[in-house]
Amino acid sequence: MYGRRVVKLPWKKDRTLSSNNYDVALQRLKCLQKKFENTYFQNIYTELMQDYIDKNQVEIAPETPSNGSRTFYLPHHAVKKQKNQNVKYRIVWIFPLTRKPIFE
């Protein structure tokens, strides 16, 4: 597919989410917001996310899950790569590691 990334989520058929990761995702968001105190970083990160949104590769999650369904949030953060004088940032999606099963 051109200009679009398609990734299958590793869900098994006939299984439902037993819990959501809202609290973990919220904690990750708070850490990211703290990094946004650096205006340069905030601008770079915003541009990267806007590019994903413009290409319909991601969508903004609703503040509350719709129609009572369970929601699984995919937190993200930036990784900085510096080579000589060039600095590049990329967004990394965090697939949470959990000790509790998230499926029933």
Explain what you see.
With 104 residues, this protein is an alpha+beta fold. It has a domain at 21-60 and 71-93. It is 29% helix and 15% strand. It has helices at 22-35, 39-54, and strands spanning 76-83, 86-93. It has a two-stranded antiparallel sheet. The model has no long low-confidence stretch (mean pLDDT 79).
Helix content: 25-40%
Which of globular, elongated, flat, extended, rod-shaped describes the shape?
globular
Ranges with pLDDT <50 over ≥5 residues? none
Number of strands: 2
State the gist of this model.
The chain has helices at 22-35, 39-54; strands at residues 76-83, 86-93. The protein has 104 residues and is of the alpha+beta class. The protein has a domain at 21-60 and 71-93.
List keywords for this structure.
single chain, 104 residues, alpha+beta, two-stranded antiparallel ribbon, 2 helices, globular
Give the arrangement of secondary structure elements:
Elements lengths: L21 H14 L3 H16 L21 E8 L2 E8 L11
